[in-house]
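Researcher: Structure prediction, please.
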Amino acid sequence: MNFSYKTQRYMILFGFLTIPLALLCAFSLYPAAALFYFSLTNWDGLGFDQQWVGLENYKELFVRPEIFGAFKNNLYYFVGGLIQTAIALYFAVILNGKLKGRYAFRVLLFLPYVLHSVATVIMFKNMYHAEYGSLNVFLGALGLESWQQMWLGNPHLVNFSLAFISMWKYFGLSMVIFIGALQSIPDDLYEAAKIDGANSWQTFRFITLPSLRKVIELMLILTLTGALEAFDIPFVMMLGANGTSTFVIQTVDMAFKFENFGLASAMAVVLLFIVLFFIVIQRKVLFREGK
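Model: Predicted structure follows.
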């Protein structure tokens, strides 16, 4: 059977689009729709006995301040992410230059991101241990016994300790992204600035930063969403104990510990809208298009 060129073209396009669209519907659109439906029901996650309650789950969310109070712990990860992004940019600028051994340094700094989160947490759990942890042992060897702390037992320090783990793990990824962006900046711009007598700070301020505008915007979005969705490090390390529970940990506990999948689904939907809200605010306020 012979088909015209136009028909063959449509058949090829349809064939290539069918599988991606089917996967998108199966693993993204349908689960999202099901999540919203579950948020309107009272369901324990077992069987199909789902009682329709409408917006009652959302009303319950906004009359329980302890649920949204968990976002104060997410704030530690957001601030840590901002600091990590700034330090990653600094190291990216250095390692993008003609530094001897820069490739080895890039590998060493990127290595923590390759490690599995559970392995990273176990490593830091041994480092933070109050008695035999390497951090307190190191401080004792330096004669700084007064600096030794219960890094995971002190509720005033535990979230800082966990946020540092997140900074350490994702620092390499941020640095590599910045290095890739820096390598796309034409060398002619730096040579012209050098001829005009610009110093290092002026070159960074008027050439490097404007050229990295879109990448910095991306990094801030990743920092924001990563902070709002912080889960693996505080959950594996502390199971949310000692004031380390984040919003996602509370969502998981609500579903699998308290078997209230309806309320947990409502929490997940609210988190989705919170993330979208802050992304829109960031793009419209901090990075206005056409500015």
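Model: The first strand starts at residue 41 and ends at 42.
Researcher: Thanks, that helps.
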